[in-house]
Amino acid sequence: MGIIAVIIRVNGTSRHTVDRVTPEQSLDDAATAPIPVILQRPLWRDTFSSLRIHNYRLYVVSQLISNTSGWAMRIAIDWLVFELTGSVALVGVTVALQFGPMLFLGPFGGVVADRYPKRRLLVTTQAINGVACTVLAILTISGVVVVWQVFATALVMGCVAVVDSPARSVFVNEMVGHGKLGNAISINASIFHLGGLVGPAISGILIAIVGAGWSIAANGLAAGIVVVTLLSMRTAELLPSLVASRSKGQIREGLRYVLAKPTIFWPIVMLAFVATFGMNLPVMLVAFADHVFGSGAAGYGLYSSAAALGALAGAIASTRRRAYRLRSIMLAAGCFGLAVAASGIAPVVAVFLLCLAAIGFTRLLFATAAESIVQMSSNRIIRGRVMAIYSMVVLGGQAIGGPLMGWLAEQWGVRTAMVASGMVPAVAAIVIAVLLARTGRLSLHFRLRRRIVPISIEVRGQLG
Fold first, then answer.
1. 426 burial type by CB count under 10 A (0-12 exposed, 13-18 middle, 19+ buried)
2. Which PROSITE patterns match (predicted)?
């Protein structure tokens, strides 16, 4: 099957495709890892081709458990705070504590991820998570938990994510190599976002049956499973990432790199709107379950399940993507925003459930395409810092959006807040698409060489 290697030209500056970059090379002259684009849609048997690799298969199983239980715990502590305080705004504060550290320390975490072995970092971060979750679970199940203890655990999880998120993103390449990276990124991103939708559904059921403490305990167990899985991998089959040497200005270097590349910059800008306004669905569903439809924890789990079904369909669709284009990213983001806005005005539960399924589907399409094009457009020597900025936008946006949407829900009503949370990213997608159409004309140049077709993408005019 043929592969297209992409050379990106931005305002006349070219980035040539090679496979290795030494720390001594200047990033202005360093090569950008090629973006593999499948010329024809893969066969169904190749939809999950990267799972044929032993280490990645182990990793996927552990991450499916970890992500699902991690999101279940986040929802459990959100619901726990709501039970203890009765305040939607304080639920938003809990979200901010979980994601806020990434907003302020994200680039630093990227530097750490670029400097140290990724597997060792992940073992450390998951061990810390496991201990923190176990302590909070014991306090909750025993009935002595107070709000500040929940806030403290949320803050610890947020600080751990500063290093864990970029290290986990880059570690994928070490397991599968460059040839299957695109497929693995789609699967990995699908697991993350699918967990974000399945986890709340499971958590809602557990909360209704046995209480929030057991959802928290499950995440502690999941962290232990991840540690065992990482330690049991076949190290001889791993492809260690390039390690950046210590030098001054590495955070600024990463920021300049992101700003200079349209295939990284524009998806991250769009992601900022989606994360801040559209990715606080758990906070909004808590309010819908309690204030709008009066369905309680059981209804909350049902709503999350509907979104999870849509996400599953989106996950399958994303693994069969043939190309990564800015226009498809903006289209998916716009559709996601419209689906969120439509759910805010849904008159009955049945329509609300359909809208939630559409939210899950379009969110997965946007998220997997955005992460794939950002990571595969990044030089491997700086990929940790790039993905740290990406994670900073995802988690930091939710840290800002959690309290914001909670406040809007209390001040204007949950339906109005839901409509606003969808319309802002929808309008942003339209504006960015218009800017790209007016200022960036893409011209493709093909040169046939055996089964490889190098393409140069030339962006004319100023994009940033």
1. buried
2. MFS (PS50850)
Quote the pLDDT of residue 27.
41
Pair 405, 417: CB distance under 8 Å: yes
What are the tens digits of pLDDT across the range 416-461? Answer: 888 988 999 999 999 998 888 877 544 334 444 444 444 444 444 4
CA 114 vs. chain centroid, Å, equals: 19
How is the chain split into domains, by residue range?
36-460
Positive or negative, the Cα torsion across 385, 387, 391, 396? positive
By DSSP bridging, strand 3-4 and strand 455-460 are: unpaired
> What does the pLDDT look like over 216-262, one tens digit per residue?
898 899 999 999 999 999 888 887 765 555 656 677 777 888 888 88
Residue 210, SS3 per DSSP: coil
437 phi and psi, to 5 degrees?
-65, -35
Q: What is the pLDDT of residue 221?
A: 92
Residues 182, 5 contacting (CB under 8 angstroms): no
User: What is Dmax (Cα atoms) for the chain?
Assistant: 69
Tokens 């004319």: give the residue. Answer: 460
Q: Edge-to-edge strands of the sheet including 6-10? A: 13-15, 6-10, 455-460, 441-446
Residue 231 is which amino acid?
Answer: L
362, HSE (Cβ side, Cα atoms, 13 Å): 26
Architecture of domain 36-460: Up-down Bundle (1.20)
Which residues have CB under 8 Å from 257's CB, separation 6+? 27, 264, 378, 379, 382, 385, 386
Tokens at 152, concatenated: 């403290």
Give 10-residue mean pLDDT values along the chain (464 residues): 38 34 37 44 62 87 86 83 81 78 79 82 92 92 89 90 84 78 74 71 79 87 92 84 61 80 89 87 75 72 78 76 78 93 87 90 88 78 79 78 79 87 93 82 42 42 38
d(CA 115, CA 196): 29
Distance, C-alpha 383 to centroid of its chain = 15
Q: Are 55 and 233 in contact (CB under 8 A)?
A: yes
Beta-carbon count within 10 A of 388 CB = 30
Indicate the pTM of the whole model.
0.67
- State residue 142 phi and psi, 5-degree precision: -75, -10
Rounded to whole angstroms, the Cα distance separating 20 from 242 reads 8
